[in-house]
């Protein structure tokens, strides 16, 4: 009996040892696994997705640990939160190495392609449904930057990629009213003015304003700073090349001239007045050539690369 009992005990221990699950992913191993997973992914990864893939890889998973690790990496800017496709009252976030704003902006640019105009419906369809709010915010940004223009008078809301003439906003009733005014004015003019000439004048006035030099202001730079801030993943410092490119793109789309010297001097003067902080890059030699060229270089080799408003 003793011999039989001993054999049974040994068998139970062997079975227990055989069935023991592998250790759960925790700490650095979990972070490395999630980074590898999101890097290889073609879209945002949910906690449920991560759990499923970890199990397939032979790991024991703790969903709460995975979510906690995702959130920690999102706080330090290694990953970004994305809206989830879940239908729960409070769906969990998804996570990816590219921010939701940049992902949507890329999809919108792809949808625009070489078209000169596009409907709101097509813009919304360029990204999955859960990104609808991000799409709306991105369209507002593109309008503010002068990369999209709302087309008046369309049944379906439509945008164009080039600015419309100023008089495109006039309705048929308003044009008729202008013609009526012209008819009265022309009775006392030495040379009659046509409606076409008046409309050309109004359009020309808009072009002239757009071609004026765009002297940078701190208010403008702070607005450009806020546009890029979500992509910084919680960091408050902004690379100066980012803001310079935003400023230059704005000039390109509006037809206004940009002044690099005035841009740099504005930042330097604002720093001297205590309104912004300028931060030097610790290893400027590691910067790409175009980023280094867009930073502010000082005598002695110091490179001012980051800035942030102080007020």
What does this entry look like structurally?
The chain is built from 13 helices and 10 strands. It is α+β, with helices and mostly antiparallel strands and 311 residues long. The chain folds into 4 domains: 2-96, Arc Repressor Mutant, subunit A; 100-160, Arc Repressor Mutant, subunit A, CATH 1.10.10; 166-210, no CATH class; 218-309. Strands 7, 8, 9 and 10 form a 4-stranded antiparallel beta sheet that branches. Strands 1-3-2 form a 3-stranded antiparallel beta sheet. Strands 4-6-5 form a 3-stranded antiparallel beta sheet. Strand 9 (296-297) and strand 10 form a beta hairpin. The radius of gyration is 30 Å and the shape is flat. Residues 206-211 have low confidence and may be disordered.
Q: What do we call the CATH topology of the largest domain?
A: Arc Repressor Mutant, subunit A
Q: In DSSP terms, counting alpha (H) and pi (I) runs of 4 or more, how many helices?
A: 13
Main sheet properties: 4 strands, antiparallel
The CATH C-level class name of the largest domain = Mainly Alpha
pLDDT < 50 stretches: 206-211
How many whole angstroms does the radius of gyration measure? 30 Å
Number of strands: 10
- CATH architecture verdict of the largest domain: Orthogonal Bundle
CATH 4th-level superfamily of the largest domain: Winged helix-like DNA-binding domain superfamily/Winged helix DNA-binding domain
Question: What is the string of helix and strand elements?
Answer: HHEHHEEHEHHEEHHHEHHEHEE
